[in-house]
Design brief:
By secondary structure, the protein is an alpha+beta fold. It has three helices and six strands. The strands form two sheets. A four-stranded mixed sheet has the order 3-6-4-5, covered by helices on one side. A two-stranded antiparallel ribbon has the order 1-2.
C-alpha cells in the first residue's frame, strides 16, 4: 500500500491530523464502527473525558489489531463528542496516541447532542487500509 499525505498548510499539525490521504495499491480496507468507553462486556464507562477518550482509543486499537491491520495505516479517523470544549482540554491524549502509532490521518471532530448511552462523552471511528 502506498499512502501519500497532502497538507497545503501547517496548522493541522498541532491537532494531530492531515488534510487528505491518498491511498494506492491497497490490499484491503477496514471500516471500524465507532468505539467508545465500553468494557469488554459492553458496560459503559462513566469517567471523565480523558479516561473515556483513552478507553475509546484502546478499544479502537484492539479492533484494528485483532483484524490484522495496524494503527499507523489509519487513513480517516472521526471523533464524535458531547463537548468539544472538554475534548480539546485533554486533546494531548489523542495526539499522544496518534504520535505513538505514527498515525497521519484525515479527521473530522464533531460535537453531538448525545451518544448511544447517556454517560458516554466520546466515540471514535476509523478507516484503515493495508
Amino acid at each position: 500500500m502506498e499512502k501519500r499525505v497532502i497538507n497545503p498548510w501547517d496548522y493541522q499539525d498541532n491537532f494531530g491530523y492531515v488534510q487528505a490521504v491518498e491511498v494506492k495499491n491497497e490490499q484491503g480496507t477496514l471500516y471500524c464502527s465507532g468505539q467508545a468507553a465500553l468494557s469488554a462486556e459492553g458496560q459503559p464507562g462513566s469517567g471523565d473525558m480523558p479516561s473515556q477518550l483513552t478507553q475509546a482509543l484502546e478499544n479502537l486499537e484492539t479492533v484494528i489489531t485483532e483484524s490484522g491491520y495496524r494503527c499507523q495505516d489509519i487513513v480517516r479517523l472521526n471523533i464524535f463528542t458531547t463537548s468539544v470544549q472538554e475534548i480539546l482540554a485533554c486533546f494531548e491524549v489523542f495526539t499522544g496516541w496518534a504520535a505513538k502509532h505514527q498515525v497521519r490521518q484525515a479527521s473530522t471532530l464533531l460535537e453531538v447532542k448525545g451518544l448511544f448511552i447517556e454517560s458516554l462523552k466520546v466515540e471514535v471511528e476509523a478507516t484503515v487500509v493495508k
